[in-house]
Amino acid sequence: MNRRDALTTVALAGAAMAATTSIKADTAPTSTLDRIKKSGVLRIAVIAGQDPYFHKDLSTNQWSGACIDMANDIASKLGAKVETLESTWGNQILDLQADKIDLAFAVNPTPERSLVIDFSTPILVHSFTVITKKGFAKPQTWAELNKPEVKIAVDIGSTHETIARRYCPKADILGFKTRDEAILAVSTGRADCNVSLAVLSIFTLKKNPTLGDLAIPRPLLTLPTNLGIRAEADRRYKDFLSAWADYNRSLGQTREWLLKAYQTVGLSADDIPGEVQF
């Protein structure tokens, strides 16, 4: 091989290597933020029966609610549109891990979850309440519910279930796939009560006033609720969402989104018990 042929071979090899590197770069995984900006789509989980967070119009299959307003606001900052995937409180964590969604709303940052996903700073701090069926004595403390004869309905995989099992381990805890099914168990007398976040229980009782009564047992239990995202080395998406959460929470905008959703059933700020953080 003469010198010219050798140089040509080296050049061709270099070009092939460069092309291979370029292909690898093009197919290499990008961060969530880069993917959203490139596709123009923000994928979120939506959960049926979770007013005022999420509401599904069964006639149109359109979603509304406080979390939809939040998602649209986040998407607008990223030059994207919102795409929904119907899920459950428990499954949305799996959806994040499986890269089916980019964002999960109202996720409580438990130590176990922090091992598999990441979180923004809190969007709200919530209080836990109990919806009791008609005729069942309203509990003044969680200890009053911690009895084998008390049947507590919860939606599986939710923080409602976590609280019930933590504070009422002796009770008969009935797990249901959705919160709607847990509420139905109370309305039909299959369960004595349902553990729910105040933001959900207040809405439920306003919509169904004959269902039962609202109780706020002592000690008052609160827990932050955050945005859940996939864990990744690139922190830009997490930092953006944390800044968004802090900004809207401090301005009271997050509260306004929730009150807007409450208005659909005639609820106002005056209907929220003073003990409830919101």
UniProtKB/TrEMBL annotation:
InterPro entries, A to Z: Solute-binding_3/MltF_N (IPR001638), TAT_signal_bac_arc (IPR019546)
Coiled-coil stretches noted in the UniProt entry, renumbered to this chain: none
Domain Solute-binding protein family 3/N-terminal: residue ranges: 41-261
Record keyword Signal present: yes
Signal peptide: 1-18
Keywords from the named record: Signal
PANTHER family: ARGININE-BINDING EXTRACELLULAR PROTEIN ARTP, MEMBRANE-BOUND LYTIC MUREIN TRANSGLYCOSYLASE F
Protein name as catalogued: Transporter substrate-binding domain-containing protein
Annotated source species: Bradyrhizobium campsiandrae
Lineage, top ranks: Bacteria, Pseudomonadati, Pseudomonadota, Alphaproteobacteria, Hyphomicrobiales
